[in-house]
Amino acid sequence: MTAGQFLSHCSADALRQAAQQLKAGALVAFPTETVYGLGADATNPDSVARIYAVKNRPADHPLIVHVSDLSDLAEWADDIPEFAIALAREYWPGPMTLILKRSSLAQNFITGGQNSVGIRIPNHPIALALLEEFKKIGGKGVAAPSANRFGHVSPTTSDAVAEELNEFLATGDLILDGGASQVGVESTIIDCTGEAPRILRPGAITEAMIMSTTQSVVTQEGEKIRVSGSLENHYAPAAQVLLNIEPHSGDGFIALSSIATPAGVTRLAAPKSNEEFAQVLYEALRSADHKNLARVVVHEPTGEDIAVAIRDRLKRASQSR
Ligand code: TXA
Ligand code: MG
């Protein structure tokens, strides 16, 4: 293990140092409330290229630009519709990404050549402090995908980031520790380039919440947009993920705590609510690999809350082979 220096005490000094490293072109992995991100200066093509190399991600998959304040939005996006402003006011900082018409600042190396750009204000004190320090020294925004190798489970702890990326990071890159992510699944992505909001990836901000804020029906229509998280094989551990079947002896098992553990099965998580299910899911999938389990059986939660996002990710994880 060489590479990224690990900063577990995010003092004001450490965050200033991390912002300077970003400005100098280094990569900084940082906590957010959804999952950990791998950050780079969103205006620096060489740094952004390193994100793709470290993640082994195809170069045409667009990145989300993270900013700290609503007033930063106009720098990155043009012609922002009223309904998008309403969503931003209601749910930022928070687990929501808005896809908007890009400004000239959002270049092809961020947008994957599309005319839109993804923007998010994360709700995590360390992420917000890092973004603010970065802005103080002239930074415009931090491009950050989830801090995992392409196709893998997203990290929700700094240890998981190190496990995923340490061997690919360079001297000067940093991993900031901010505890376990509270939401645990990636942000809701909402396309705001059409007449009405359209959910591209479900998350903690639900369809019902979007409808109540925008007074509009969430469409399923529109041209096809490239979303790497919507590829079939994604969010997958090495273990085979099987949904809603009776586990065999020797399998890993993830289900709500109200469901008993069958004999001979390794219980990986027993969350008490759908929110807790989302919080612990990715660490539970990782632990299946740490225990060298061949199979992990998951009983999916029901409901139209964050369970929609959980079922979306599990479907992809289970389709990975
Ligand atoms: O919660 C999150 O969103 C985390 C944290 C770190 O903020 N980030 C994250 O990034 O999940 P990533 O790159 O792993 O997933 C972002 C998704 C990708 O599937 C990408 O294709 C999509 O957002 N995306 C980004 N910009 C887009 C755009 N202009 N149009 C359509 N999709 C876009
Ligand atoms: Mg990702």
SSE layout and pairing:
Elements lengths: L4 E3 L4 H12 L4 E3 L6 E5 L3 H11 L8 E3 L6 H4 L5 H10 L4 E6 L6 H4 L4 E5 L4 H12 L5 E2 L14 H8 L8 E3 L11 E4 L6 E4 L5 H8 L25 E4 L8 E3 L11 E4 L4 H17 L4 E4 L8 H12 L3
Parallel strand pairs: 1-8, 2-8, 4-6, 5-9, 11-14, 12-13, 12-14
Antiparallel strand pairs: 2-3, 3-7, 4-7, 5-6, 9-10
Helix pairs in contact: 1-6
Threonylcarbamoyladenylate binds next to strand 5 and strand 6.
Characterise this structure.
This protein has 321 residues and is α/β, with parallel strands linked by helices. The protein has 2 domains: 210 residues, DHBP synthase; 78 residues, Rossmann fold (3-Layer(aba) Sandwich), CATH 3.40.50. The protein has 10 helices and 14 strands. A 10-stranded mixed sheet has the order 1-8-2-3-7-4-6-5-9-10, with helices on both faces. It has a 4-stranded parallel sheet with strand order 11-14-12-13. The chain is globular, with a radius of gyration of 19 Å.
